[in-house]
Amino acid sequence: MAQIDTIIASPSPVECRRLQNILEKEPDFRILAQARDLSQTYTATEALSPAIVLISQSFAALPEFEVMHMLFRVLDTRWLVIENGDACTPHLKITRNSDLFTIDLRSGGAGLVPLIRSVTRAQRRKMVPARPVRQSMPGQKKLVMIGASTGGVDALATLLSGFPTDCPPTMIVQHTRHSFGGSLIGLLDRQCAAHVMPAKDRMRLDPGTICIAAGGRAHMQLAISHAPQVRLVPSAPVSGHLPSVDAMFHSALRVAPRTVAVLLTGMGRDGARGMLELRQAGASTLAQDEASSVVYGMPKAAWENGGAQKRIPLVDMAAEILKAASMSGEEAKP
């Protein structure tokens, strides 16, 4: 009988104990670990690669669960949400494209074991080596800047998978908590042909380099000396965020004709003002369309204020960015 390796993730010792009592009666279940917060859940899942994670509803409702969900997909780990009686938050509903199932422990967990056996029955995918060989796109002339917030983790994974190994130098601001920035970057680096790395002060922006500021304590800005490089500038939040998309976009105004600015799914308006400034200075500007956005906030604001030249479906965004990056400033004008 195949073992079903399981991780229990809940802030409640009572909930963990109830789940453990149910599963320990079954000979084909093995509990690998119990996690009391989302960071512990991520670490245990990445290290132990369980067949399934039973995760508290309160964890699944956190914005940072986007990163957790991406790890589940990479490892082909199943997951079940354990309802605890709290009302579902709006963010939990955002997981509409996931393999979401729920179990209500208030009914004694009836049906939990058969459901776990059912969702783990299929053979798990083997891990595919990262960095597939991809055809490069000659003639790249520009720097790419991307801003994203809610829903951005999946959007970035989709977009960056379409970038070649020698993609244009790319700067990305993704709103997330500090503790999950490194995890997100590591996951994206596994999945992309180009090299994805955390933003570091004074790092060079060379072709094939994608640097991400996610949950940091400084704004990521562009500096131009002999070659473009990243500057990390500790400061107050801009447009309500640190790091801020607006702050990143504003730093590229001097080289706007050599910049492609992109806004992906996200709540709020961060990036909309900076995108408008860049467009007025000669940059190519793109916004994700409403149909493919999880939250049509940031891209909507950029479209409505005139900052975005085009609205692009997510599946077409990588190709559109690479096309814009290969054009001169005059060619890129609509």
UniProtKB/TrEMBL annotation:
Keywords: Chemotaxis, Hydrolase. GO terms for cellular component: cytoplasm. It comes from Rhodovulum imhoffii. One of its GO terms (molecular function) is phosphorelay response regulator activity. The active site is at S149, H175, D270. It comes from the Bacteria. This is protein-glutamate methylesterase. It catalyses: [protein]-L-glutamate 5-O-methyl ester + H2O = L-glutamyl-[protein] + methanol + H(+). The keyword Hydrolase applies. InterPro entries: CheB-like, CheB_C, Sig_transdc_resp-reg_Me-estase. GO terms for biological process: chemotaxis. It holds the Pfam family CheB_methylest. Residues 138-328 form the CheB-type methylesterase domain. Its EC number is 3.1.1.61.
